[in-house]
UniProtKB/TrEMBL annotation:
Keyword Metal-binding tagged: yes
EC number: 1.1.1.90
One GO MF term attached to the UniProt entry: zinc ion binding
Family membership noted in the UniProt record: Belongs to the zinc-containing alcohol dehydrogenase family.
Entry keyword Oxidoreductase: yes
Protein name: Aryl-alcohol dehydrogenase
Pfam families in alphabetical order: ADH_N, ADH_zinc_N
Cofactor: Zn(2+)
Top-rank EC class of the record's enzyme: oxidoreductase
Length: 358
């Protein structure tokens, strides 16, 4: 199968849009024509790691239409509209108890860039292997081969090209609030970082009935948007007296991965409070044991969500006007991927979504 893809050939170089040949869908796999693909901070963070196989196609917030299925596929059929989320094995102890984001094979299936059997999944014009299974999909392309367990079927009347971010970033933010932290009515929560994940958490906290929702960010425009989406207060992350300005909260949620920010997120917790971490790559965090007295701190993957259950719930909230995630999105053609990456890094765009067909 011939496709166009944004290929990264060197960790320090820009993406280039090239023709690639995708392997046909094998057992348990489906070929998806990509309608839209969100750019997540994880794509940007990991694209700089020299140990990943290169050349490689990133992208793990894809949405599209199933064009073909491999042997044994029963959950989706050609013509289905789908959102692509993370991959999992389906049979380990975590998967069978509804905790697939902690699958025994999560890292190998999602962060290696290759198939479970070690094959690349695609070839370039010179016949060289191209790693095309990032998060089981590699959706920065016109077509992607995903596993059946990646896919969530959605209503065909929905704006398919905008739904991809529900598969990771928005699921992570909202799931962390609803499922992992279990925010209840009248609770107070502080959200550090008002990017797509943080703003999803803000919107979810409003739905959950939180009494106080404090959004913290360095960008004034994102603080303003947080207030429009449900935050009761929005504070400048550069404030040297930030912890005092926040006060005490029942929950804190860090999307930045910055050690100093994480320490503040823990410091503002009331005894019995919980802190959720999703930001990666910021370095080590040093704490005195007493800082954890009566407090819970944990790293959350994918919001603890089961995509086939959670993504339809978020779509339902969006239809009710209670989770307006589309306000975060700015679209780019596939050829504009480097502009999308630049705008995401600068804060100019909250959630870039690539449209491969445009």
């Amino acid at each position: 199968m011939r496709a166009q893809a944004a290929v990264l050939r060197d960790p320090g170089k820009p993406f280039t849009v090239e023709d690639v040949s995708l392997a046909a869908p094998g057992p348990g796999e489906a070929l998806v024509r990509v309608a839209g693909a969100g750019m997540c901070h994880t794509d940007v963070l990991f694209r700089g790691l020299a140990e990943l196989p290169m050349p490689m196609v990133f992208g793990h917030e894809g949405s599209g239409v199933v064009e073909a299925v491999g042997p044994g596929v029963t959950r989706v059929a050609p013509g289905d509209h789908v959102v692509m989320s993370y991959d999992s094995c389906g049979w380990c102890g975590r998967c069978v108890t509804g905790a697939a984001s902690y699958c025994d094979e999560f890292m190998a299936r999602n962060l290696s860039g290759v198939r479970a059997d070690g094959s690349a999944g695609a070839t370039g014009n010179g016949g060289e292997p191209v790693a095309a299974r990032w998060f089981g999909q590699s959706s920065f392309a016109t077509h992607a081969v995903a596993t059946e367990r990646n896919l969530v079927t959605v209503d065909r009347s929905l704006p398919l090209e905008l739904l991809g971010p529900l598969g990771c970033g928005l699921q992570t933010g909202a799931g962390s609030v609803f499922i992992a932290l279990k925010v209840r009515p009248a609770d107070a929560i502080a959200v550090f970082g008002a990017g797509a994940v943080g703003l999803a958490a803000v919107m979810a906290a409003k739905v959950a009935g939180a009494g106080e929702i404090v959004a913290v960010d360095l960008h004034a425009s994102r603080r303003e948007l947080a207030l429009e989406l449900g935050a009761t207060r929005a504070l400048d992350g550069a404030d040297p007296a930030l912890a005092d300005a926040i006060g005490e909260v029942d929950h804190s949620f860090d999307t930045t991965g910055v050690p100093e920010v994480i320490r503040t997120a823990i410091a503002v917790l009331r005894p019995g409070g919980s802190c959720g971490l999703v930001g990666a790559g910021g370095g080590e965090v040093t704490l005195r044991p007493a800082a954890l007295a009566g407090r819970t701190v944990r790293f959350i993957l994918e919001g603890d969500a089961v995509p086939q259950q959670f993504i339809p719930m978020l779509i339902g909230l969006w239809r009710q006007g209670r989770f307006p995630f589309d306000r975060l999105i700015r679209t780019y053609p596939l050829g504009g991927i480097n502009d999308a990456e630049r705008d995401s890094a600068s804060g100019a765009t909250v959630k870039p979504v690539l449209l491969p067909a445009s």
